[in-house]
Specification:
Blueprint: H1 12-18, E1 22-26, E2 29-34, H2 36-41, H3 46-51, E3 56-66, E4 69-73, E5 79-84, E6 93-98, E7 103-106, H4 109-114, E8 120-128, E9 135-140, E10 146-150, E11 165-170, E12 175-179
Length: 180
């Protein structure tokens, strides 16, 4: 309509769909202001990363740091690659966020490794079928960490069953990490 308006809502989907710019507030303070895409793909604080959209949150320690590339190791021993937002040093307590839709699922880990992705073995704990919004809850084998992954809608996993062993991986650039 060519009119500026301010709309206050707790409905994230509504805010992202209707807005050119969104301000995320936390305890009466602005955490981040940006386009819906900026908030979703480039969160600047752990609050925004955890608040906007669904995420797998992994708390741990930065065990390897090479520029913005790092490895987050959880207390359970899960070591995942991620991209630092802001300054993170080796030994820092950190939180990493991996969106369910950035992970790739495979029945054979070699498929992921051929694509240059680190792979993790997991057991299917639960299938959450909701058509195009379907997800699978996985339990990573080594650390027993739960991961929610968006189920690809290619039909390739239409026969996936609870208890089945699969592999998953993701592009480390799509996993954002912040000092705690």
């Amino acid at each position: 309509f060519g009119t500026t308006f301010v709309y206050i809502t707790h409905d994230q989907s509504e805010a992202l769909v209707l807005s050119d710019h969104v301000a995320v507030m936390n305890h009466g303070r602005f955490e981040q202001l940006g386009t819906p895409q900026q908030l979703y793909y480039e969160p600047q604080t752990p609050f925004v990363a955890g608040f906007v959209g669904a995420n797998n949150r992994i708390a741990g320690v930065a065990t390897e740091v090479n520029g913005s590339a790092l490895t987050v190791t959880s207390p359970e021993g899960l070591a995942i690659p991620a991209r630092a937002i802001g300054r993170v040093a080796r030994g820092d307590a950190v939180e990493a966020f991996v969106r369910p839709e950035v992970a790739r699922l495979a029945r054979d880990a070699a498929v992921l490794r051929e694509s240059g992705l680190q792979s993790f073995n997991a057991r299917v704990d639960s299938l959450l079928f909701d058509g195009a919004n379907s997800a699978v809850l996985l339990r990573e084998a080594q650390s027993n960490t739960e991961f929610r992954i968006a189920l690809p809608q290619t039909g390739e996993f239409a026969d996936l069953r609870v208890g089945e062993t699969v592999a998953f991986g993701f592009d480390p650039q799509r996993a954002v990490c912040f000092a705690s």
